[in-house]
Amino acid sequence: MNIHEYQAKQIFQKYGVPTPRGIIANTPEEAVANAQELGGSVWVVKAQIHAGGRGLGGGVKLARSLDEVKTLATEILGMTLVTHQTGPEGKLVQKVYIEEGAAIADELYLSVVLDRAAEMPIIMASTEGGMDIETVAHDTPEKIIKIAVDPAIGFQGYHGRELVFGLGITDPAEQKKMISFASKLFKLYMENDAEMIEINPLIKTASGDFLALDGKMGFDDSALGRHPEIEAMRDITEEDPDEREAGQYGLSYVALDGEIGCMVNGAGLAMGTMDTINYMGGTPANFLDVGGKANAETVAKGFEIILKNPKVKAIFVNIFGGIVRCDRIANGILEATKLVDVHVPVIVRLDGTNAPEAAEILKNANIANVIAATDLADGAAKAVAAAKGE
Amino acid sequence: MSILVNKDTKVIVQGFTGSEGTFHAEQCIAYGTKIVGGVTPNKGGQEHLGKPVFNTVREAVQATGATVSMVFVPPAFVADAVMEAADAGIELAVIITEGAPVRDMQMAKAYAVKKNMKTIGPNCPGIITADECKIGIMPGMIFKKGNIGLISKSGTLTYEGTNQVVKEGFGISTAVGIGGDPIIGLSYKQLLQMFQEDPETHAIVMIGEIGGDLEIQAAAYIKEHITKPVVAFIAGQSAPAGKRMGHAGAIISGSAGTAKEKMDALQAAGARVVASPAEIGKAVREVLSRA
Which of B27, B77, B156, B187 is the best residue to mutate to test the A interface, defined by the most A CB atoms within 10 Å of its own CB? Predict the structure, then answer.
């Protein structure tokens, strides 16, 4: 799960990680009141969406008067912001963060993420702040410092020294501030079961202080149960409504651009099914994993969600039953055809646990649109042919 | 011969009396696995599925001589259970539970390594040596005995791959589902090495996925050390980029973890890479007739 910048900064502040002061606003009037409360003469109006590249997309603007705060907040609130991470459809801005302006002397990059190979978190830092870090990694990999921190020993002095010397920070007072910054960030990463924290840019002010000018945080979904205060930060408007609805039924769904709806058990086989459809000249309309607890209700729901997509011309049900029993899926398909208007051909391949019983159920039901397949290749070929109207 | 487990392997079940543990332990016993008991705190002294229940893993190991544990405890208790097994001298923990927090698994894995305990999973179908020992949740009836070793991140692709191998007239020596979580136990590399050394295994099927770089490491290992034929499939060629993977994670490994990158690396290492899982069976036939 991801959270907004303003929420990440609330967590930063709780742990003493320095950030500029800011207040969240839902309306232009609130934005002006917030700017007044913050004081000063320069403010930044920042669109709050779960995507990077907000500045380039026109979602982050500088205001030098309260009037300008109001104008900019009016402009940004309600806009559909398109960045390289939102996709062409963009995202609706519903909140703006009003932040005091900061005098920037230098821009750095700092993140904490899990290093899967080392099996421990890693602190990544670079002097090239404010830039797309992927570009830095590609063009000048030597400018990225990586420091693995074993949770068993925690953030030690030497981690801090590797960081500041790596960043070329020589002033002792600045070194101390940066080490304290990183140490607190690591602590909050561990204590909150974060998946990643990224601060880009982390700025050095004219007075030699370090501030998190931006903040992105993602969390381990499996650990949210023990962090109700973070779960409460979930913004459901940032989630795809179909994916969310599917999730409530234990289905994992991702919409794609093609014509063949897929219903599969297991993420690996679901991807493998999409790959096979592509390989045979068709296009998958979605990824859908019915999970290990599929029953008649979830299968019916799956059909309903797949068929919401008007592009779908055929559905391929591909189940290799381990825990999932094929007879239950077969009953689910029968149930679905009663509950939902299944107006496209449904190609069904059921293998594994209770497959013979399932075949019998489907055969006896004799539903017009349902076509049986013997294996993965046969099913994919029939689905591709059906989508082409053959 | 086979790898890691066989008909003599003594297995206990952690989370024995829960609904999942009960259902799958029963299936394992029916398959022929030597389940010698289980652990559920506060139920020590009882009997379940005709096997003794213990309060702690230490007691279970002392009483039964078990060397392997199959872990079914709920996600929040997985790390605790795995570390308990490691401390009690278990040699291999097969962790089936899905949804264990990543931070917990970092700690549990580090401790398991320190105690010399191997782990498989979490969030995996388990391990099976055909006709001898099934430790996990896979449908046992599809695993016909034979000479193909199989390693897969995905449970259902393990079944799909196995089914095709069997349909082509071959069989499985041992199949291992390693799981797709960020922190996992045994990975391709160690298992490839074990299959290379196992005289009963004549060829290896390796099934991977997009994300991470374990398959890239495996490719390097295959190139250097594996002389047996390898058939490989990477799921997710048609998955949209960046749907899940954070970009910062990809920078660390120096690879984007795309299917193409992995397929190219495996191809270059000499593996027979197939574009669809539907081709696994035929590819196995092909590499074995060439060998």
Answer: B156
